[in-house]
Amino acid sequence: MKPEFTWSDAWVLAAVAVGGGSRGAALQQIIEAGEVINRAIFTPQELRRGLAKLAHEGHVRVQDRSFVVAGEALAAFEQMPRARLSSYDVMQFFEDFLQAAPYPSVDPDADDPRWNLAAVSDAEVIAAAEAYQADYQELFDEASKP
Description:
By secondary structure, the protein is mainly alpha-helical. It contains 6 helices and 2 strands.
């Protein structure tokens, strides 16, 4: 059965692409890229469900502890123009690629156990988000010093 992609799945794919592309991105890099793109932090459910759907369709490959854009998504990503792209442009590109439904109030696949990525736990996503926020705070603190 094919998953129904939503806007948040496109956000996850965009974050994997921006965070590491074909080289791969660890959870923290995906969370960092997702925040840059959407000015928000993924919930564990959004990230795990999105990665599971994308992996199922071959758009993302799990490689050790990182995630790599793969298959048709990689081919499309490599054709994406790079000059002067905004976060909106990147999101629009991946929304169109996935033919994603507008962001629903409830993901239609939210309760489907197939879209619960076992390779990553909620605790790992939370830890990666906290590590990203600590790194960001450290950079901010350094930049604020006279």
